[in-house]
Design a protein that fits this description.
The complex is a heterodimer.
Chain A lengths: L2 E9 L4 H11 L4 E8 L3 E8 L2 H10 L4 E12 L4 H11 L4 E6 L7 E8 L2 H9 L4 E2 L2 H5 L3
Chain B lengths: L3 H4 L3 H22 L1 H10 L20 H6 L13 E7 L7 E6 H17 L7 E4 L7 H13 L2 E3 L6 H10 L4 E4 L1 H14 L12 E4 L6 H11 L2 E8 L4 E6 L7 E3 L4 E6 L13 E7 L10 E7 L1 E2 L11 E2 L4 E2 L4 E3 L2 E3 L1 H10 L7 E8 L2 E9 L9 H19 L4 E5 L6 E2 L2 E2 L2 E3 L4
Parallel strand pairs in B: 3-4, 3-5, 5-6, 6-7, 18-23, 19-20
Antiparallel strand pairs in B: 1-2, 7-8, 8-9, 9-14, 10-11, 11-12, 12-15, 13-14, 16-17, 18-19, 21-22
Chain lengths: 144, 433
């Protein structure tokens, strides 16, 4: 029940990101949150969408290189030091965060962070023992 | 073997046959095509001087530009009412080159293709799906007539429409597939991307016949693995006849040239000097039997070498290596000779990279600058920048170790490299612009 992230390869040129977004828009796929990692030549667009499987399918059909990956969605208090404390758990377990980003909206007064790990399960187990709330896919995108 | 007498003829006897036919062919061109007469007269050569195969080197070369200058019918050696078919190569840089065939030429064309198919193990029991383009291009009709001559069930589907190709594999029980090697990989990609329930193992496909573009051993391995077939090279050029100038055999090691119809030499592309057997250079063709469009010492620009070995298949015909590049595609980058096929080999060694690439050479100040654009497909894509950067670095390292040059590697979107008529444009040399 991990959260599924949809990622796409986008050239770092005017109009290319928009083309990806148009494909998703035309298929009524809603982006809940996103981040872009960029290099001088290309960017990797990472998104949490309401229907990642359909998103994956339509992007492929439009010849856009993409993939889906399991990521960890973690709920933390929206207070100073909360993220620091969460990362402390990973540091102690020697779990490297490949990358992370945040949800744009608060969820029931709390912040939601997305983490990408080499081993999602290990990271999840480490957190659960410390009383953290892992946000499930169903909580984010609703029942399908 | 389709023509056992010819295909297993002792070398000495073959040379005698070639000399006899050369005398006819050179005379035929000289007597019937003003271009040849003028050129040979100027060079002080007369067909009567052709006494041995060695005398061939006195004859001036025929170049692609000569064909363009004589567009469309200027090099035909028979009246047009004897010509039953024309083919033409695309004129991307000037006039197209037009070649003609008499009834007999069409027969010879079908014969050499039938011999090639037979060398791959194709028989009249096979269903041959021809996915080369039908039209002015020699691929489609060439394979078609050869396959019919062999007696196989021939499916003239032509190129493109991948879902239909895949449907006919199943519905028609196709056993042999003929196409460009890059299209074969496209088909494998298409199945992987869009038809996860399509199992290539469920088809009867067993042999692939690939040509019309240079391809590498690494590509063969990939095609064979992904399409579960034996992949064979068929080589040819429209200026000589079309596919069927030479073909691989069961050994998949070198292509046998049909020497009873085509006389081959290897020359140094810089000096034009004929090189001894075994040395690498540009291959030059002379037609021995063609009536409508004789080609005498045609400079193909294809780089290969010729050799005789005791081929296990039993054929005694001279062999040529898979063409490793074109002398006019050769790039000299910071003094290093680079063929696009070498770039392709480097890319194919990096797992998952299919050869959709483009080399862009430019001059920054006084230094040559090389950029290699590589299209990113799903097999090499990662959502982590770290992994993508490692890929670029791996390609760059490989280039440095194999070619000794430092190339800028640009990862780009699928479809971003321009293609002309399905073939990717491999090299852009901005130094010449």
């Amino acid at each position: 029940m991990n959260v599924t992230q949809l990622s796409a390869f986008v050239a770092n040129k005017p109009g290319h990101l928009q083309r990806v977004l148009k494909v998703l828009a035309d298929e009524s796929i809603n982006i809940i949150t996103l981040t872009i990692a960029e290099t001088s030549d290309f960017g990797i667009l990472r998104m949490i969408v309401n229907d990642p499987d359909k998103g994956h399918k339509v992007l492929r059909e439009n010849n856009i290189t993409c993939s889906i990956t399991d990521v960890l969605a973690l709920e933390i208090d929206d207070t100073p030091g909360s993220l620091y404390n969460a990362l402390d758990v990973f540091a102690h377990m020697n779990l490297n965060i490949e990358y992370m980003y945040a949800f744009t909206e608060k969820r029931e007064g709390k912040a939601v962070m997305i983490f990408r790990f080499e081993d999602v399960e290990a990271a999840k187990n480490a957190l659960v023992g410390k009383g953290y709330n892992i946000v499930r896919k169903i909580d984010i995108i609703g029942e399908k | 073997m389709y023509s056992k007498d010819i295909e297993t003829m002792p070398e000495k006897k073959m040379k005698e046959l070639q000399l006899e036919r050369l005398k006819w062919s050179v005379k035929h061109a000289y007597n019937n095509v003003p271009f040849y007469k003028k050129k040979y007269d100027e060079a002080g050569f007369h067909p009567e001087q052709l006494k041995s195969l060695d005398d061939m080197r006195r004859i001036p070369f025929l170049k692609k530009q000569d064909m363009r200058d004589n567009y469309p019918y200027g090099l035909f050696a028979v009246p047009l009412n004897k010509v039953v078919r024309v083919h033409a190569s695309s004129g991307t840089t000037g006039n197209a080159t037009v070649v003609g065939y008499t009834k007999n030429d069409v027969e010879v064309f079908a014969e050499v293709v039938a011999r090639s198919l037979s060398a791959y193990g194709v028989t009249e029991n096979d269903v041959v799906q021809v996915a080369y383009g039908y039209g002015l291009f020699t691929g489609g009709l060439g394979l078609h007539y050869g396959s019919e001559k062999l007696g196989a069930l021939t499916v003239p589907i032509s190129g493109g429409n991948t879902p239909r190709q895949l449907m006919l594999f199943k519905d028609f029980g196709t056993t042999v597939f003929c196409a460009t090697p890059s299209y074969a990989l496209n088909i494998a990609d298409y199945i992987e991307k869009n038809m996860s329930d399509y199992k290539i193992e469920d088809t009867k496909l067993r042999i692939g016949v690939f040509g019309a573009e240079p391809w590498t051993e690494a590509m063969r391995t990939e095609i064979e693995k992904r399409l579960k077939i034996d992949a064979y090279d068929i080589y040819g050029l429209s200026e000589v006849i079309g596919p069927g100038v030479s073909c691989e055999c069961s050994e998949k090691s070198g292509l046998h040239v049909f020497e009873d119809h085509f006389y081959v030499e290897i020359i140094n592309p810089e000096t034009g000097e004929v090189l001894p057997e075994g040395e690498k250079g540009e291959i030059v063709y002379t037609s021995l039997t063609k009536e409508a469009f004789p080609g005498i010492r045609y400079r193909s620009r294809d780089i290969t070498r010729l050799y005789h070995d005791s081929c296990k298949c039993g054929r005694t015909l001279v062999k040529m290596d898979k063409v490793s590049g074109r002398s006019d595609d050769m790039l000299i980058i910071r003094g290093v000779n680079v063929f696009p096929s070498q770039v392709e080999s480097v890319l194919m060694e990096i797992e998952g990279t299919e050869p959709h690439y483009q080399i862009i050479v430019d001059r920054k100040g006084s230094l040559d600058d090389i950029e290699v654009m590589v299209e990113v497909n799903e097999r090499i894509f990662s959502d982590e920048i770290k992994v993508m950067n490692e890929l670029s670095k791996k390609i760059n390292d490989k280039f440095r170790s194999v070619l000794g040059i430092n190339a800028k590697v640009t990862l780009s979107e699928p479809g971003s490299i321009p293609r002309s008529e399905g073939k990717a444009v491999r090299v852009v040399d901005k130094r010449k612009q």
